[in-house]
Structure formats: structure tokens, C-alpha cells
Write a structure and sequence with these properties.
The protein is globular and about 45 Å long. The chain is 73% helix and 0% strand. The longest helix is centred in the N-terminal third of the chain and has 28 residues. It starts with a helix and ends in a 13-residue tail after the last helix.
């Protein structure tokens, strides 16, 4: 199983690289008040940034799906593998529902985004319940802080920090995934499914 765990860890690292690098370019190239208000999704509805964010979302989806599939018969809880696969499915769905195309599209986009965030945060909660040690708790806390900032930004456009809340949330999720996949968990009793 170490080989499968190494493969899953590599896939997760690749998913985060292919997600955060194009996102970083988008933020550096086009950082407007509207991006702060609309979050990461802003980059999916503008022709100048759509190709980059498309690569980010579709590449991350591919590698998360691959990691989840690799972990299905592994030493990690099945809900972690399924959670990664559900998040992988949500990324192209977010691209396919541009929030700026009208109310139905906006609501569809928001529902998909919120469900994906709840799955991601559910994985963090599960991790912290199983392993409340420092690294796990910090990863979950970073994700929680980002989620709270993003959630506070959604209904209140005078609090324009959705983009940064989402980025912090996703960085927290990256840390949660790496903690789930850390080698010392292979022998941990807390990881029993």
C-alpha cells in the first residue's frame, strides 16, 4: 500500500500545483475589486482568464479524481477517497455554470460551490476528530478561517474578501489533504476505517 499512498500523494501535490499556479497568475494579472467580490469564480467568466482558470480547475479535477480512485482500496477511510472524487466532479461543474449568465446559473454555481466547500470542510472535521494533534488542528483551523471570511463576504458586498477567503480556505484544504496522506498515518490506529 505504500506505493498507492505515494501515488495518491503525488496526485494531490500535482492537483494543488496545477490549481494554485494558474490561479496565482490570474490574481497577479487581473486583481480588481470585482474579483475580490466574486471570488475565484470571477476568473471563470472573463475571456482573458478563462483559459488559465480552466486549466486550474480541470487539471485539479483530474488529479483529485486520480488520487481518490487510488485511495479507494487503501489504508485511508473511504470517505476521504470519495470526498476527493466529489470535489473533482464539482470543479468542472463550477466552470460549466458561469454565475454571470443569469439567476439560474448563479444559483446553480453557488449551490455547487457551497456543497463542494462543505465536503472539503467535512474532510477537515473528520481529520481533526481522528487526529487532534497540532498539524491537523492547524490545517483545519486555516480552512475554517478562510471559510468564515468567504461566508461573510457572500451576503455582504461591503466586505469584499471572498477571493482571499476562498484562497485561504483552499490552502487549508491542501494542508488537510497532505495531512491525510502523511506517511505516519499508515500505522496509526486512529486511521482505522
Amino acid at each position: 500500500m505504500p506505493r498507492a499512498l505515494d501515488s495518491a500523494r503525488r496526485s494531490v501535490l500535482l492537483s494543488q500545483g496545477v490549481f494554485f499556479l494558474p490561479l496565482g497568475v490570474c490574481v497577479a494579472e487581473v486583481h480588481t475589486h470585482a474579483a475580490n467580490l466574486d471570488g475565484i469564480s470571477y476568473y471563470g467568466v472573463h475571456l482573458t482568464t478563462l483559459p488559465l482558470i480552466g486549466v486550474a480547475y480541470l487539471g485539479a479535477a483530474y488529479f483529485l479524481w486520480r488520487a481518490g480512485t487510488t485511495l479507494l482500496d487503501g489504508t485511508r477511510p473511504r470517505e476521504f477517497a470519495w470526498g476527493l472524487r466529489l470535489v473533482a466532479v464539482s470543479l468542472p461543474a463550477l466552470l460549466a455554470t458561469p454565475y454571470s449568465a443569469g439567476p439560474w446559473w448563479n444559483w446553480s454555481h453557488m449551490v455547487i460551490g457551497v456543497l463542494s466547500a462543505l465536503i472539503e470542510f467535512g474532510l477537515a472535521i473528520d481529520l481533526v476528530i481522528r487526529d487532534a494533534r497540532g498539524v491537523s488542528a492547524v490545517a483545519g483551523l486555516v480552512q475554517l478561517i478562510g471559510g468564515l471570511v468567504a461566508a461573510a463576504s457572500l451576503p455582504n458586498w461591503s466586505f469584499p474578501y471572498l477571493l482571499w477567503g476562498e484562497i485561504v480556505f483552499e490552502l487549508g484544504f491542501a494542508a488537510v489533504m497532505m495531512r491525510w496522506l502523511s506517511p505516519e498515518w499508515s500505522s496509526s490506529r486512529r486511521m482505522a476505517t
